[in-house]
Amino acid sequence: MAALTGVAALALFLPHSRRQSLLTGGATLGAALFLGALEWRDRPIVIIATLANIIILTVLARYLGRTRSEATTGVAEPGSQRNASSQIGNVHVEVRTLPMLASGEMSADFCDLRSTSFGARLLVVDFMGKDTATQEKASSLLYQWARAAGEAPGLGDLARRLDSLLAQEDLFAKALLVDVADDGTTTLLCCGHPPPLVVEDCAAHPLSLVSLLPPLGLFHLVHEDIPIYATTILLTPGRRLLLHTDGASDTPDADGAFYPLAARLGSLDGLAPGECLDRMAAELRQHMQERARDEALLLLIECTPPSAASVAPLHSAPREEVAMATPWTEVGQAAS
Fold first, then answer.
1. Are both 110 and 249 inside the same structural domain?
2. Of 13, 22, 209, 233, most Cβ neighbours within 10 A?
3. How many domains does the chain have?
4. What is the DSSP secondary structure assignment for residue 46, as one 8-state letter?
5. Where do the PPM-type phosphatase domain residues begin and end (predicted)?
6. How confident is the model at residue 321 (pLDDT cuts 50, 70, 90)?
7. Are 29 and 174 part of one and the same domain?
8. Are 247 and 294 in contact (CB under 8 A)?
């Protein structure tokens, strides 16, 4: 009978959703009531104490589930998409989302930015599905990312952890994992996601990736221990990196034409990052019109001179030493 308290306590240590915590607690309480009815005459005090403990633990697990969900704060989160501007050290990140969502709506495209002792660490996700169950898994993914981002020294380990989480749920998601150090050294892992665009000298071109990985949750379909290689690029002043989800490049207009993302990005290179994305977002809205469309997420990253940088009060956590290349060379490295 008393062992049922331990079952309810398990919810405190697992990244369950609040609904799962209530279901676990309710099932445990039901079992305790059934057994308590059989043993009431022999151990009434033990039964009362057990029931009280199960109720307390269930309420506590539900509260922690809400706290964990709120703890995954970043540039944007599932269900709370917004435009944002963030500065971590010398790293400046601008974000625009399309369409802007009404209160309570859920988005399949989201991102999370964190300050760690490895530098600025960023996750961009294009999740499959918008139902409540998928939303809960997306929140769980963000919670695991938030915990691991401050611990794992390499993006390879981070990718494996997130892949394992989604594989257990038979889900998958296209994703980009990015580390940006204050000196502009930027390391990327592309997991089934469109490659970022490098912007310099009023021109934009796709980043040449060393290795394109499957979406998170599908690594096992390629190899049980798939090798992971990261792409490294140096963001010097005047060089920017645009990360985007499918909706920005793959949504046709009424005539079937696609938005010229690279060409427009290059022509707007002289503008400040926020103004550049505001222009692109306005053009994309006009391009999409009222037709059925995918969501779109735009992120523009640049490294500002140290004298112009300010530190945003985000989470703190660790920094990956990467092999340096010449300022305009993209190189590959094995990701731990």
1. yes
2. 233
3. 2
4. H
5. 90-303
6. very low
7. no
8. yes
